[in-house]
Amino acid sequence: MQVLYEDNHIIAISKTCHEIVQGDKTGDTPLSDVVKAYIKEKYQKPGEVFLGVTHRLDRPTTGVVLFARTSKALTRLNAMFQSHEQIQKTYWAIVPANPQLPLTNRLENYIWRNEKQNKSFVVKSDTKGAKRAVLTYKVIAQGDRYMLLEINLETGRHHQIRCQLAAIGCPIKGDLKYGAKRSNPDGGISLHARQIEFVHPVSKQSITITAPVPDDSLWQSFSGMMTDLE
Known about the structure:
This protein is of the alpha+beta class. It has helices spanning 31-42, 71-83, 160-167, 217-229; strands at 2-6, 10-15, 52-53, 62-68, 87-96, 104-114, 119-123, 131-142, 146-153, 191-199, 206-210.
């Protein structure tokens, strides 16, 4: 487990594609339990350790996950995530190279979640249960076969990035559920919660937390391109 940031009120972890944030029907140990055990051991805390889940990442997605260590921090962070104020999450996604794709764009759709399939679909606005989904993206690096997108969400819907990118013919690398041609060797998808910027729920300071990209050659290549541009 890689800790990216911690203080008395919050802790941020770099999630791998093999971890789940919260427990589910698989019965696998969730990341939240691993973090609790870490806190209990490091700070020699007696009894139950408090840890609040403030947001989630899909299991095959990597990147920064923020947890609350106090109830005060959890309440304030939950409000910030729900209102999309004082907090900004930035994602990176690797998709097939497409020279016809606009370099920057704002996607606005209505998406509907099929519970049985655990999958979302772009639908008409009057579809029962459909929810408005908005994101912006820009192409920040390009290779021969793939390109790297930087994505910011204006809404938070089920599988939103995966669904909306697939709808414009850009399924995320490795994402078989949304149209990728083949899986990734590690079983994950090339969607990475790169950075989270927010106002600390207690100190009110501006905090920026960045998660390193996964350790594979394509991610490292794109990351190197971005470093060269800085």
